[in-house]
Design brief:
There is one protein chain. The protein is mostly helical. 65% of the residues lie in helices and 0% in strands. It is built from four helices and no strands. It has helices at residues 3-27, 39-47, 50-55, 68-79. The termini are far apart.
Length: 80
């Protein structure tokens, strides 16, 4: 019976710890945010054509464990 309050205390402390860690993680900006107001980024984006700007939004899914045929397909997609 004496273990019940101790168990409750342990669970409460653990829950509080996880909650506080979650708040710390949530407050951190992702690394790319450091370039949000960068003159260098703005100058590069201004130098791109509309097609090149659109191309910056395209992401090709590439995997390193799929063999030579997959590699060739990725290269083809990038070139197109």
């Amino acid at each position: 019976m004496k273990r019940l309050p101790l168990l409750f205390l342990f669970i409460s402390l653990a829950a509080t710890s996880f909650h506080l860690q979650g708040q710390k993680i949530a407050k951190q900006d992702p690394p790319f945010k450091q370039y949000e107001h960068s003159q260098w980024v703005d100058s590069i984006m201004e130098s791109l054509s509309p097609d090149e700007r659109i191309a910056q939004l395209i992401m090709v899914a590439a995997y390193s464990n799929r063999g030579e045929a997959h590699k060739q397909e990725i290269l083809r997609l990038i070139e197109e």
